Amino acid sequence: MGYDQQAVERVRRTLAGRRDVVEKRMIGGLSFLVNGAMCCGVTGADLMVRVGPDAVAWALAQPHVRPMEFAAKPLAAFVCIEPEGYQSDEALARWVQRGLDFVATLPAR
Length: 109
Hints:
The protein has a single domain, classed as Aspartate Aminotransferase, domain 1. Helices cover about 30% and strands about 35% of the residues. The protein has helices spanning about 5-15, 55-60, 90-105; strands at about 20-25, 30-35, 35-45, 45-50, 65-70, 75-80. Strands 1-2-3-4-6-5 form a six-stranded antiparallel beta sheet. α1 (about 5-15) crosses α3.
């Protein structure tokens, strides 16, 4: 599966200026790792965000959000946001920040 180049560029702009970000093709799209931990990414046209297991229920209650699946199995700490859910730059930034907030709790790799 590919990924939406415009969505990727928007995520890149959101993360611009950080020295701890690495891009990597994985989970069927392009992922952004922060301090070695997957934070967010784009798969197809969807934004995937690692919110952490404690925030998944809250995230799934938001509009345009569904569980993240890979190889037909749910990923416990991730959600997918449809394009309507991150249409504005502010909404995209809020979702990316949720991913950054979670990976900040993890030890650096």
